[in-house]
Each structure stands twice: as C-alpha cells, then as structure tokens.
Specification:
Number of strands: 0
Order of helices and strands: HH
Shape: elongated
Number of domains: 1
Strand content: under 5%
Number of helices: 2
C-alpha cells in the first residue's frame, strides 16, 4: 500500500469564514468564485505581515488597529 504524501508545509490555513464571506457577497446580488476565498485569505496574510513589521518597527509586540 503506497503512503500518502503530506500536504506541503507552506500551505497556509484559510483565515476567513468562507460561509460568511459568501453570504455577504450573495446579499449584494453577486456570486463568489471557487478561488475567491483563498485569494482573500492571501490578502489578509499580506496585511498582517505588514502590520507586524510596523509593530516591530515601533518597538511593540502588540498589533494595534493603526498598524493595519
């Protein structure tokens, strides 16, 4: 029996609640593509990375709203 390969460690977890995002988009009379949730999550990772850089530059360890 062949062993299954593990998922790549670089695969990031989705940071959004897909059902909530889809419901919001649907409430505006539009549809959600199958890859929109992953793209949105990638954007959030980028925003958080930038916010953490700013936080460190300001010699803090707490990310605040102004960092976003």
């Amino acid at each position: 029996m062949a062993k299954k390969k593990k998922k790549a460690a670089s695969k990031k977890e989705v940071l959004v609640v897909a059902s909530k995002v889809k419901a919001y988009i649907k409430s505006k009379g539009m549809m959600t593509s199958s890859d929109a949730i992953a793209a949105l999550s990638d954007q959030i990772y980028g925003m958080l990375d930038c916010a953490m850089k700013r936080t460190k530059a300001n010699r803090r360890s707490t990310v605040k709203p102004q960092d976003l």
